Each structure stands twice: as C-alpha cells, then as structure tokens.
Amino acid sequence: MHLTKSVVVGLLATAVAWAKPVLHLDFERDPTGFEVVGDVTFELGPRLPEYPHFAKDNRAGIFDGSGRLVIKDSGKGSPLDFDNGDAITLEAWVSSGTIGEGDNVYLIGKGRTNNKGFAANNQNYALRLRGQGGEGCVSFLFFSRPEKGKHGEWHRWTSDTGVLAEDGWSHVAVTYEFGKPKSVKGYVDGKPVAGRWDMGGATERPPVVDDDELWIGSALGGSRNNSFAGGLDEVAVHRECLSPEIIAKRHRRVSQPKPKFVRDDWPRDKVLVELVEGFSPARGWPRPDLPPVDSYRQDLLGFYRTTHKYAEPGVRVDRPKTFLLRALASITLPAGEHEWLVRSRWASRIWVDDELMVSVPQPRKGGGAHHNVPRIPEDWPAYLRLTGPGDAEKRFRLKSKGQTVQVRFETLVGDVKGKGKYRHDLGETCIAVSVSGQPFVLLGPVRKVPLTDAGWMTWRREREPFFRNLDTNRRRKAAKKADSYWEKRHKQAREIVSAQVTRALPEVFGFIPGRNSIDRFIGVGLVQATKRLRGSREEAGSVHFRDSVFPLLQDRCFKCHGEKEKGKLRLDSLKAMLRGGESGDPAVVPGDIGKSLLFSLVSSRDEDERMPPKGKPFNAGELKILREWIESGAAWPSQKRDTIAADDKKVTRKEMAEANLVPTSLTDDLSFLRRVTIDLVGEFPSLAEIDDFEKDKSATKRANVIDRLLADARWADNWVGYWQDVLAENPNILKPKLNNTGPFREWIYEAFLDNKPMDRFVTELVLMGGSKHGGGPSGFGLATQNDVPMAAKAHVLGTAFLGTNLQCARCHDAPYHPFKQADLFGMAAMLERKGISVPKTSIVALPTAGSRKPLVEVTLKPGANVKPNWQFPSLASFGTAEPYLRNDKDSRERLAVLITSPTNARFPQVIANRLWKRFFGFGLVDSPGDWHKVRPSHPELLEYLGREFVLSGYDLKSLARLILNSHAYQRQISPNANPQSTSEKPLFAGQTRRRLRAEQIVDGLYHATGLPMEVGELNMDRDGGLGPATFLNLGIPRKAWQYASLSNERDRPSLAFPRVQAVIDTLKQFGWRPSRQDPLTDREETPHALQPGILSNGILSIWLTRLSSEHGITEECLEERPVEDLLDTVFLRLLTRRPTETERDRFLPLLREGYAERIIPVAERNPTPWPKKIPAVSWSNHLSPEANFFVIEEEKRAREGDPPSNALSPAWRERMEDALWAVINSPEILFIP
Amino acid sequence: MNDPFNNLSRRTFLKSSAIASIAGVGGLRQGVEAALKNRFQGKAEHCIFLWLGGGAAQMDTFDPKKKGDAKAKKAGSYYDAIDTAVPGVQVCEHLPRVARVLDRITLCRTISHDVIDEHAAAAYQVHTGRPVSGTIQYPSLGSIVAHEKGQLEKGTPKYVVIGYPSISRNPGFLGAKDGFLYLLDVESGPAGLARPANVVSSRWKRREELLGVLRKGYVSRNREDRRIQDYDSTLQDSLELAGPKFMSTFELTGESADLRESYGGEFGQRCLLARRLVERGVRFVEVSHNLNFLNGTGWDTHNQGQLNQHLLIKELDDALSTLITDLESNKLLDKTLIAVGTEFGRPAGFDGGGGRGHHSKCFSLLLAGGGLKHQGAYGVSDDLAQKSVENIVPLRDFHATIHAALGIDPSKELHAGDRPVPITDGGKPIESLFA
User: Fold this and answer.
1) Distance (Å, rounded) from C-alpha A557 to C-alpha A546?
2) Is the model's pLDDT at A908 over the cut of 80?
3) Can you tell me the distance from the alpha carbon of A1035 to that of A1044, in angstroms, rounded to the nearest whole number?
4) What is the tens place of the pLDDT at every residue in A780-809?
5) Which of A807, A1218, A1228 lies at the smallest CB-CB distance from B203?
6) What is the spatial distance between Cα A71 and Cα A22, in angstroms, rounded to a whole number?
7) What is the chain A residue with the closest CA to B206?
8) Which residues of A touch B237 (CB under 8 A)?
9) Among A110, B31, B156, B309, which one is least packed by beta carbons within 10 Å?
10) Are A675 and A972 in contact (CB under 8 A)?
11) Quick check: B424 contacting A, CB < 8 Å?
12) Who contacts A1196 (Cβ-Cβ below 8 Å, separation ≥6)?
C-alpha cells in the first residue's frame, strides 16, 4: 500500500462528509494544483433549493467539449496509481450535453493522454459517459498490463442506463477492486445500475500503471469525440470502494416546478419554423427562448431544407457549423391513443404541451464504404415511406382527449463536436402520426399528407418555390446594402458614356423594314454590301477574289503571315507576296504557277515542307481557287471601305433584290412566339401562353410578349447553362477531381433571377465571396488538383468578359495571339492577391527528333515569380480603377473594377455580343471569347449596343428587350442570308436557323409534355456521413442546368443513378458537358446518329412518351373534347402550331379509332399496387454486394418507366403514345423557327 | 542533339527544298521516316479493350511471385503460380485457360504511372495515356481509334462501351462524333438504340410511318435548309442503326450453348458481344469488368475484397481465353487486338483487413492477338512485382503499341482547336512485338 498523502485539490462544499478521497475537485476556488487547458470556466453549479447538498452560490466547472484539467502524477507510489488489490471509487456530479451515439467522453482518466514518453493505451482507469440510446451511460475502463506472451487488452464495463442530456445535475459513480472482476458496481443518482463488461470481458489481470497525468474532462490529446461538454462538480477519486449506502446519500434532488415554456405567439394554423444560431453547441441545447435569426411558416412538420443564408452583397454564405431548427405547432387529434413517429437526421427532441416525449440521438456517422444497406423490416407497411438514409426514427404512443396540444420540435443541425465537416442536410426530418392505427400522415395544424413516397415527394416539390421565394427576399435584402455603391457607379458610367462623342444614328432606308434603331445599322450594312457588289461588277474577277480567294488566305495563312511575320513573310497584300520572305523568293509570281513558291508549298506532299505546318492541308477545291487566281494574274482588288463610302449613288430596292440582300419579312406570329419563348425562357410556349398571344389584338402584341417573358423567372434557368459553360462551372458530386469548382451555379441562377447588373455580376464573381461549397461565388475560386487555380480563373475571366484568349499562356506565349505568359500570370496574381510562381507543369514538350521547330516560345520558366499586374492597358489603364475602389489595397477588387469600369468599352461590347450571338446564331464578333484581330461585322452597331448597355446600368434584360424588338430578330429565317464560309461576315438580312441547346431540349420536352421531372437527388452521400469538400449534394433537379457528371469512374453498379443517367444521356448527346474543365462558348453542333437515337429509344424518351397518370398529355386525353381538338392541343404543346392538312389526314383516323371508349370508367380501373420498396444505397454502403442488386433493380425500373395510366384503354393509349413519339422525334422539335 | 535533322532550321530547310527539286533533303528524310514508321505499321482493324476497374493486383494475376501470407502480413502473391504455353512464363493458378493460350498473348509487366490514391485520375490516365491537364481534355483510346480508323461500314457505330459512361471514356477535344455508344445490360442493348421492350414491331412500323409524315412535311417546308436536311439524314441513319440488321448483334441466343457457357458469366457474355460487335465492324469495344458481386469490391481488393478475388480472376480466365480462341476460330484474332487495362496495380503487402492497397509504380497490362508477334511476357519486375527491372514500358509506350498495331501513327498530331496534340507524347511501340 502506498497511500501516504491525499492530493486534495479543493475544499468540501457539501453537507455530506467525504470519505478521504485522494483527489477531490469542488471548483469553488481559483484553480490550484492543476492546470487548465482549453475552455473550462467556473460558473454556478448545482445549488439550493433543487440540490439541497449544495450552497446557493456553489460553483462548478463548465467544459465546452475541448477543455480539460490536468493533474500531474507525483511519480512512483503516487496515490493516483492503482494496481491489482487496490480498491477504487470514481465519482462526479455531471450536467451533460448531448453525447453522440457510441461516443465515449471522459470525466476522469488516468493515462491515455497521448503524452510523449507514454504508451498509447496506458489507461490505468477511467470514468466515462458512453452515448447509448440517447443516454450517457456510466462506463469504467482500463487497459490490462501487457505480460509475457500476452498483449494488453481493453476492459470496459458500461451501465445499461445512464444520465439524460439536458436533465439537470446527476451523480455518477463506479467502484471496483482491481483483480476482482465481479466487484464492479455503477451508480446513477445514488442508485445502483445494471451493466456489463462490453469490451475485453471481465479480467483478473492488473491495469497499466505508470506516471502519466490524470485528466478531467478529456483524453487522447484532447480528441473532440472523447471530450466532455457540460458541467462537472465534486469530482473525486477514492482508494476504497464506497458502500452503496454512502453513495445512496450522495444524491439528493428536490424536484422543482419546472418553469413553463410560454410563447404568446404560439402559431395556430401553421407550423412556425425558427432557425437559431449563436450558441456553443458543445454545451448542449440552447435555451428555448434564444431568439431566431430567421423564421417562416409552413403547413406540415416535414423538413428537408431550411432557407439559405445571405450576406452582403447578396450572396449565399454558410451557416455556423451547428444551428438549431425549432418548430412550433398547435395540433388537434381525435380522442384516443395514437402512435407518433419522429424521423431526424440530427439529434432532436419533441415536446407535447411542454412535456418531453422523446429525444432522438444523432445517428452515428461512420466513414468508409463497407457498411450494410439498411434492411427493410418484414412487417413494414407497403404504403409507408422508408426512413430516409442516415435518418434515425423513434416512435411513441400518446393519449389524446381530443383537445389541441402544443407541439415543440427541436433539432440540432450540423456537426456538434467536430470541425463542421458535414453538410447541413436535413434528410427527411418529419413528425407523423398514426391515428388509432390508421396509416401514418405527416402532421400539420390543418393539413395532413400521407407519409407515402408520393406524399413526401409532393410535399417536397411544393416546398421548392416556397423556399426560392423566401431566399429571394432574404437575398435581396442582403444585396440592398451594396445598392448605393452601384447606383453611384452607374450614374457615373452614364455620365462618362453620354459625354463621349457619339455619331448620330444612321439614316433610315425607306424600303428596308425597321422596328428600332438596330435595324438602321443592319440596313446600312446591307446597303454597303450591295454597293460592294456594285463595285465588283465593274472590276472583273474581284467577286471571286472577295468571296473565295481572300477568305481562303485569311483563314489559312494570315495567322502566321499577316498577324505575325513568320519567316519574315507576310501574305496579306499582293505587294508583300511579291516581296516574299526569308527564302528571298517571291511567294507568288502572277501568271506563273510553277514559280509561285506559295503554291508549291501548300500543295506539297511532304508533311515537313507543306504549309500550313499544322492542321489540314489545302484540299483540291482550295488548291483550284488558288491556282486559278495566280494563273489569272493574281489581281488584288481594293477592299477598302472608303471606296464604298465614296460611292454615293443611291441603292434601289431592285438592285438590292438582285444582290439577294433584301431582308426577309417578319416571321408569322406563332413562329415568333416559339422563337422568343425558347430564346428567353428555354421552353416551348404553353397552351395558355399561345392563347393569350393569339387573343392579343394590339399593335404591341409582340413587345408585350417580350416584356412578359423578360419578367418570367425561367429567364434565369435559361441563362445558367450558358454561363456554366462560359465560366467553367464544374462541381463533382463524388470526390473532386481536376478543375472541379464549387456549385456556383446557384449563384449564377440567383444573379439572373435578380437581374443583377452585369458589372456587379462580374465583380461578385471576381471577389469570390460567400459559400464555397454551398453555392456562393467563392465556388468559382476553387480548382481542385490544379497547381495554379488562379491562372485557370484568369483565363476564364479573359474569355468571358474581355474577349482575350489567354489559354496558351498557361505554358507558353500564345502562337496566334500577342499574349505572353506574363499577361496571364499577372492577372492570376491579382486574383491571388500576391505574387505567384509559374508551376512546374507549365512546360512544353520538347519537339520530338526530326519534327519542325515549334510555333511557340516560352518567356517564363517554371518557378518564375510574377507580381500582381494588369497587362491590358488598351482595354483600361491601371489607374482608371482608382475612383471605384472600396479597398485600394485589394488587387482582386482592382481587377474587378478594371474589367467593369465605365472606361473599359470592351466589356459592355463583349456582353452585348454574347447576347447577340445567342439571339442570332452569329455574333457581331463571331468568336465571343476571342476578339483578337477580329473585325466585327457591324462595328458601329456593336459600339451602339455597348453604349446602350452602359446607359441602362448594365441591365441585360434591357439590352435583350432592345434586340428582340428589332425587325432583324423577328425576321423569317433565310438559309441564304448566312455566311457560307467562316471568313465571310453575316449581314442579318434574315434570321439564322438555330438549334436548341441541350438544356432547352430537355426542359422544353418536360414542360411541353407536362411530365414532372423526378429523378431523385444528385447526392452520393445520401446518409450524410461525409462533408461537402468531398461529396456535394446538388439536390433534386427541376431543370436541366442542375445536372452534373455522375462520375462513375469506378464502374460500380452501386454508384449509378439510373434515373439521373437517363436525362444526362440525352443532354450529353446534344452538346451538354458533364465535366467543364475549361470555358466554352460555342458547343459542337454537328448532328450525329446518337442524337436522334437517344430521342427515339432513350430511357427519357420512354418516359416522355408513356401516358402515365402523372403525364400532362394523359390529362388532356381524359378531357371531354372532339378528337380534332386533342390533336391540335398535342401539336400546339409540342410544336407551337396546329397540324397541317396532311398531318391531320394521317393522325386523325389513328386517334379516332376507339376514341369514344378511350376512358375507362373509374369503377373498372385496375388498382395500382404499391411497388416493392428498394432500400437506399449510399457511398457508405455501396461496396456491400446487395447494394449492386438494389441499384440494378432501380435501373430496371427506370428502363421500364412509370406504369401507364389505368384510366385509358390500352389499345387507344398505345396509338396516342405512338403519335406523341412521332411528334417528339420530328426534327422540328430541335430547331428554333 | 544527335539527330541531324533537328538542327536544320526551317528557313534553310525551306530554301534548300525550294532549290533542291527532286531528291532534296526533305525527300531523303521522308524516306527514312517512312521506313521507321512502316516497321511498326500493324494491320489490326479492331480493338477490344477489357477494363478491370478498381486496379487488378499484378502479383495475384499476371505477374506471380513467391507466396505471401495475409494473416501474418507477409508480402507476396496470394495464390500459387502455374506454367503456361510459353516456357518460363508463369501466371496465377486461377488463370489455367489463359495459361494454355499464352502464346497469343504478351503480358506487359513493367507499366507505371504516378497516380495512386485516386481511381478516377488513374483510370483517366490509363484511358488517355496522359495525366489530367488543366488546359485540355484528352480523348480516350477508344475515341482516338474511332477518329483515326473511321467507320468501317455505314450503319455501324465506331466505338461501343459495355459499362458506365465516364469522363475517361469520353472523346475529349475530338467531340461527340467520336464518342461512344454504351450499354449496361447485354440483353437489352445500348441506350439510344435498343427499342423499348414494350413497343412491339407493329407499333414500331406505325411510329416510323407517323414520323415520316412529320419529317417529310418539315423538310419540304424548309427545302433550302442544309441544317435541317443534315439532321434529317442522321435521323435516317439512326433509324437504320436501331433496325434489325445492327440490333441483331445483341441477340446472343444465336450462339451455341457450348460457346456461351465457355465464355462464362455476365462478363463473359459481354466479351462474346464484343466479338459480335467486331464482326459487325465496330472499331473499338471497351468491356468493363467490375460488377462487384463476386467479392464485394471488384478489383479494388481492399480488406475482405481479397478473400473472393479468385472468383473474379476465374471469370476473367474463362472470358479472356474463350475470346481469344473464339476470335481465332472466326479468323478475327489477327485483325483484332485485345488489350487488358486496369487503373493501377497493388502492393505485395497486405492491409489491416487482409486485402491490398494501391500501387502504380509497376503493374501489368496485357495485349493479345492483333497480328503482333507475341512472346508471353515482356518486361521484368522485381521479386515482389513492385519495381520495374528490365524493359520498362511507360504508359505512353503501351498506348503507342496499341496504335501502331492498328496502323495508327502514334506521333501523329491531332488538333484541339489551334493547338496541336500528338496522339501520344512521344510514345514508342514495343519493338519486339512487330515482326
């Protein structure tokens, strides 16, 4: 025995005599004898009158889940050391916060500190609380001393019941005699509790004994999962087993009347939802009266998300790592006993009339992927929706007298103890009731919705617009704070642009139709083109030169021999050609093909000699053009504009008609409606929209439609896909790979929903603020696995807003552009806010032996440091940013201003040109991301549009309104009016035949058929065990832009999303990119056989043409109406036109057959059986073999599609489906009229 | 620089070639290069690429070493080794049928790259031959072959994947026209071509006829519109592709029961379908083998995945050996290169759960058929198959070998917009495989 002296750290504060403890802390005095590490404070503890053992001013230690008290061991023979034969009692008063399920938090622990010099498992003894079934069970732990031939082992005894979180102060104790396994006893509130050795088993072996420290409140170096959160008092260690009688006296509690939780504003007809922030989650649940940061009302106690949080300048920000969702409702149930059900993703509690009914512990979040798929209980009712993956469920029974009760529900959302790594998903948190054994319904004060798959999905679907509205209000409020700055800037911009000397609008040409100023500029272009032809008629051969030879040279030669002077040779004038280059020989000898070096080089068969050195060689047709031109004397007629300007002879209509340049007339009304609806909202006009339009007899009916559509929220949906491409938005739902960004699609969507001025849009993007993984512009700043993310971003910004293509400069100076590496890296450094180094990967592969000298040069070596620097003074000079800077030290803000400052005329023109190209198919500059050395087709028009855009306050809708109201936009399509080669400029005498974008095809077909988009959630981590840095939840898509790559690189069936895949397969064939590593404006549009293939046989096509009960056309079929009317309806919904005579003749007889009997009387309809449930597969369990079978079963169901409606006779329905299929597959669907 | 041509400046070269009329320097050089190229000009027309998703353990399959012990954490092979048709070359005991046809095979045992922790990035690398790049999306092997070899016959796709769509299988900068058609289930056929099961052929006829009315009307109303005509003609192609001629390829029931049984389970049936697709003229078929039913993890044999790995290996043995003999008996083996890919290999040591982690410094890939001069194995690894010792094959050389076998010049430059991108970054075909 080595009991020589006690280490008494505090004094007794209670009336009970303590039996000589060797350690006793009462927290009354300032700390002595021990060290405080981390957050431990001394505050009011258990006290009179509820706890009669304690004085009124008794203090306790309050631990926040990261702090500890450290007591040194006095060395060999210390009274804190216990060996076989020693008896021990460990006791404490505790007021515990929530303990995670399966977590073990330390109250007292000797050893296992992770201190240097000690073995990892050196636990002499420990008193812990273990989270089990929502309680903190008393747990005793030690590690047996390793002996010869025997490893040490853990021995853990845990009680079956324990203390409740948030339930005031309790006393816990454990006694044990080392070496006597049966001697262990546990106590809660003075009473013995049953328990068991649940790890390692009972043993006679001795514990590890050493000189490590004793810690109060923590272990393992301060591990969060093992640290105590809550209050401790009267912590003691005794060298004897206190008797049950003594321990029984330890605890006294005189229950006090609980203060009633009263709210005057208890909601009556709605559920009041409140979100509470600003409390320390580790200390447990916040007080119920803590005021909310946000609140809203809803019908039901069902929660799948909350409102988003917004901050200035109106961007999404993350909520704190933990917040509380509180819901209050008044519920009236019929008299009788009912079963209640609570489902929750996080720890939660429910009170009825202020009586705690049940508390749900936070489900354990295990890592890895080897868990099992949850089993469905044998007796699970066929109707009842499965508990959401990762959600816990608890049930209780409650008698109702038929009166109204007050229900309070609280759930602690987020990571209580860790670093906040989990997403704030709510899973399918809800409260449902089974009234007297009836099926469960989602509970609400007035409304009840069956807790079925359809019930939950309907509820969820209807919540989306509700939340979008709330979010919009909150966002706009947050954005308001920045408004005054932007108003000031826009005012200054207007002044600057107005002051600029501007040319008067061109005169109107009498016979050229015009609806607004745009048409005047287009008219001038057409007149000039006519005059050019007039000139060319006079000069033989020059038409050929203008139309064929010059464009050929421009296309194939000028990049190197014109814009640059490779080999000291230029080919952009006859003079230069005759002079020749380094070789000393002329490139062209007029009339002599044999001596014309240019011809011999372009026609050479030797790959190493042939020009151009890269790309396709000249084909036979091109060689012919060149040969004929040289042989006929190589005439180079003047192309100069002034020769035309000097020609002031009026152009007549006849002359213009002969030149085939007279603008086409306005397109018909319905074509216009379809065109403008697809262009503005990305879907086809609905029947109601068609009807309204046809009924409008006013002269402004087209302008009215344009205004209506500009105000439509779908305007935003229609823009997101475009900017996702241009800004390389590239989130990944499964472990970020190369150049993955955050999902800033949400920010794009919201910016367009709010019609954010474009200069403000760009500024927010460049500043990269807000939430990174939750949909803020900060997500743009992310480029995973990229060694210079900001260089990638600089390239994106350059192409998107400045028309400068800096891509090549990542590794070398651009061969076809004037840009050097330093231009890109200077801008990247501005984004980085400090100098950056050129990475090692910025290298150019050395040319292989024998190949040609590379076209590129490297001016910056890997490792070179580049300072923040703006290298585009011709767009905006560095100093012009000064007046607009809110923080002149921030190079990122300076970059934003330089791009958007009113003195930068390029930016508004780039945006105007982007808009123009979307609406006309051709840009005024046809490569919107690369303006280098491009002559705009209509420079004055471009300037005008840029100016108008600035004057409108960079308002995209205002610019769109201007363009769409022009005659040019509303004209009929003319296939001949378009340029026949890339070097020819468009004249816009007619509209262009344009294809729908992939997103417009999918959204348009869903909308037109009225089929709800139900593909499930784009989320691999469905049970929420991982965080947003590795797994994103992109939600349930309602529009095509919300999809993303499914990234099944692992090729595992269990990682597939069959329903999502069906939509993606369709999107992909039409040019949508599953991964957007780099920016892109113009998608590949060449048709290939898989496009019609996916529309005719793809899974999405099966759904769109299956007349299921959810399908919009099924509803149309069930209406009483003549068959002609039904056919018109189908054509109008899908094609925005009525069928032609020929079409009527073929389709009507088909549908007429059996038409009268098509509807099956309600009584005779076959009931639809509940489909067999498939459990949810998530990342956490996808490696279990049955996970594959479940997903393959889902795949099978996806391929089968929804069952057909039981209301239509099968034979007639099939004919109707075939008709629908034919319409959907008509090429007409894909083209804008 | 020893290469005499490399010092030749473009200017002097141009000048000299302009002066030298017939047998100039250019001509001489062309001759030398052509000779070099011809030596590696294979004659294969098709490629079947079997993909072992997850990372197959080289020492448990194609490069057996002394046995280890998972329980005792002793590094080494998990199985015994057996002799093969090629003297001196051994494979794992669960590959007995492959062992018998090893003379039609070359195991490349010294493949390496730098990615170990990320399946997707490694899969991308093995499919494209390059590490992921921040500025360009490279095309997959299949897309390059589709692009270079072109369509063999109208109404036949160039590139088919039997497995999941993924970025590493994408056409990258080559664009959707060189993309793949994919299917997951052998019997139901590819997405976008297989007609829905519930649409009987009489309905199909009706559908096409109704569509015909709409097409005719639309095209005639827009007679001069090339874009509409182009799409309409691809629509015609697509209807033909979905028609019985091509779709009969997917009816495996016509094959003899013996053959189907010899191919084995789902993966084997996929391989049988691959042979049928090749017969139809498809240029490149990728067959994925990672239906992780057999052992839980597929080829990604961490922890318990190791226990039943032999079931996967046996499945591969049946399918691969039958594919070789079946192609041979159909006189297709010389025209069809078989390649087996996997994203990386595995370490010889065992993890805490008795399985294996990832290892990319040295692992095995396989080539068979395709008219190559096979030799059983090429390249030697160290005693635990963790390091390449002799005849190292960088990934780009493996790719270059595949291209060369198909008559594609691995140094040829493709174009991503203006940017020239060689098919491989200086990859050199394995010389000894070309007779």
Assistant:
1) 16
2) yes
3) 11
4) 999 988 889 999 999 999 999 999 988 878
5) A1218
6) 12
7) A1218
8) 1089, 1092
9) B31
10) no
11) no
12) none
Averaged pLDDT for residues A293-309 = 97
| CA distance linking residue B175 with residue A1048, whole number of Å | 20
> Which one of A603, A842, A1090, A1186 makes the best mutation probe of the B interface by having the most chain B beta carbons within 10 Å?
A1090
Query: Would you state the torsion angle of the CA atoms of residues A1140, A1146, A1149, A1152, taken in this order, to the nearest 10 degrees?
Result: -50
Separation of first and last alpha carbons in chain A: 98
Mean pLDDT confidence for A39-63: 89
Confidence of residue A638 (pLDDT cuts 50, 70, 90): low
Ramachandran area for residue A1130 (φ above 0: left; ψ -120 to 50: alpha; else beta): alpha
- Pairwise CB contact (< 8 Å): B3 & A1087: no
Position B194 scores a pLDDT of 81
Burial of A5 (0-12, 13-18, 19+ CB in 10 A): exposed
> What's the average model confidence in pLDDT over A461-475?
95
User: Where on the phi/psi map is residue B254: left (φ > 0), alpha (ψ -120 to 50), or beta?
Assistant: alpha
Burial class (CB in 10 A: 0-12, 13-18, 19+), A874: exposed
Predicted pLDDT of residue B39? 64
Cβ pair A920, A974 in contact under 8 A: no
Give the one of B136, B293, B411 whose C-beta lies nearest to A1188's C-beta: B293
Residue with tokens 């290169």: B337
Kindly report, residue by residue over B99-136, the tens digit of the pLDDT: 999 999 999 999 999 887 788 889 999 999 988 776 78
Among B residues 33-92, those touching chain A with beta carbons less than 8 Å apart = 33, 51, 53-54
Q: Are A536 and A665 in contact, with CB atoms under 8 Å apart? A: no
Nearest CA in chain B to A1143: B213
User: To probe the interface with A, which of B6, B161, B183, B227 has the most A CB atoms within 10 Å?
Assistant: B227
What is the distance between the alpha carbons of residues B316 and B52, in angstroms, rounded to a whole number? Answer: 9
Interface test with B, best of A560, A561, A609 (most B CBs within 10 A): A609
CB contact set of A691 (below 8 Å; sequence gap of 6+): none
B134 vs A738, A1049, A1094: nearest CB: A738
Chain A contact for B304 (CB, 8 A cutoff): yes
CB pairs under 8 A between A and B: 287
Task: Tell me the per-residue pLDDT of A700-728, one tens digit each, with 9 for 90 and over.
Answer: 999 999 999 999 999 999 999 999 999 99
Alpha-carbon torsion A754, A758, A759, A763, what sign? positive
Candidates A850, A1046, A1226; nearest CB to B3:
A850
* A664 within 8 A of A989, measured Cβ to Cβ: yes
Q: What is the CA radius of gyration of chain A?
A: 38
**DSSP E strands: which ranges in A818-875?**
836-837, 865-866
- Is the Cβ pair A1094, B191 closer than 8 Å? yes
pLDDT, tens only, A496-548: 999 887 778 888 778 888 899 999 999 999 998 888 777 655 554 566 676 67
Residue A145 near residue A152, CB atoms below 8 Å: yes
> What pTM does this model have?
0.82
CB contact under 8 A, B225 and A975: yes
Question: Which residue type sits at A339?
Answer: E
Q: How many Å apart are CA A804 and CA A823, to the nearest integer?
A: 10
Residue A209: which of A282, A96, A110 has the closest Cα? A110
Q: Give DSSP secondary structure letters for A951-983.
A: HTTS-HHHHHHHHHTSHHHHBPB-GGGS-SSTT
Measured CA to CA in angstroms, residue A989 lies from A458, A650, A653 at distances of 49, 19, 13
Task: Please tell me the distance from the alpha carbon of residue A102 to that of residue A99, in angstroms, as a whole number.
Answer: 8
